[in-house]
Amino acid sequence: MYIDVIMEIIKGIGRFFLNPLLYIGILFAILIGYQRVKSERKSFKTRIFWGWSETILMVKEGWLPGVIISAISLIVGLTVPIQFIVISAVVGVILIAVFYYHAASAVYPLGIAFVILWYTYIADGSWHFLKWDVTSHSMHVGMLSTIPILIGLVLVAEGALVVKNAAKLASPKILKSERGLPSAIYLAKRLWMLPIFFVIPSGAIHEYVPYWPQFTLGSNTFSLILVPFVIGFQQRSRKLLPVHFYPQVGKTIEILGLLVLIEGIIAYFFPIMGVAAVFVGIIGRIFISILYSLSERHGTYAVTPKDNGVMVAGVLPDSPAAAMGIQVGECIRKVNGIPVSNEEELYEALQINAAHCRLEVVDQDGEVRLRQHVIYRHDHYRIGLLVVR
């Protein structure tokens, strides 16, 4: 039995690379990077991160949550029908293709697929989708627990990814404030790909794909299918710095995921709670997006010009500024001992000692820090600082 499961996993990994959703996710991650670089060049005449960063990090950051969810799914035995996977995948592709990733959260494709199957179940209906027959038998009462648990797990993973990674590529853009001052806003637009193993009843897939491998547990036969599940995220910050704002959003998503997960577990004993859990997940995720969008739409800007220094809007990776630990939202008050109040004065002061740079910086807490760095010939001629000017 164990050898059969291992062979299933190996074969599933191979078929993962034949799934079109994988390449759709890659394509749109590339487009996100292209759009970000274009916006950064418009505001700062240079890009901050490489255009392929979103594509590389999409897989790099998503594989571990995918492995954890897969392990829980296999250990607990979260069995889902193949129709659920197909419908959620199609809905996911549509949400990714619209390029509006407020609507590409994990809960929406899974929740919509659940609602469709649940309605078919209670209506005792039957219909055809692509080459799959969707009937009232596609779902049974056990799915009222397993699918909400799965949704809760993926929401928790989404929240954890937002907490840890959303601020990394948050892209600054210079806009005019209500007072006419140039100010920075930050947009995090990301895709994460989670490779997740799903356990499905073998009869459901074997009817359409006879060659699909299967294994037996007790008197039941199952198949494993590895799906590249894509999570989208989009949120803009202006009143709070990205390093503070996105972890708040992510933690709220994690709390919502835990709530859905608990309700899914309760649904094992009271099945109707499963329906409530899914709707809580969908409505809660919509509420989170709206709440944080409204909170950042009004109020002061975190990064706006100051009278007593130069505000840092961004720092180029692997630059002298990055080596000195300069952070977004800090204010550079002196350069090589000379007070500066705008971009021109900053770079004039840098030229006083072209081989060495010493900065006096006021951080977000109002504390003064001294930073210095030796400037080498290959270093960025502006030491890697993007400032509000």
UniProtKB/TrEMBL annotation:
Kindly indicate whether the keyword Signal belongs to this entry: no
Q: What is this protein called?
A: PDZ domain-containing protein
Q: Which organism is it from?
A: Rummeliibacillus stabekisii
- Residues forming the PDZ domain are 287-365
Signal peptide residue numbers:
none
- Keyword set, alphabetical order: Membrane, Transmembrane, Transmembrane helix
According to the record, the segments passing through the membrane are 12-34, 82-101, 106-123, 143-163, 184-205, 211-231, 276-294
Looking up InterPro entries in the UniProt record yields: PDZ, PDZ_6, PDZ_sf
Gene3D superfamilies listed in its UniProt record: 2.30.42.10
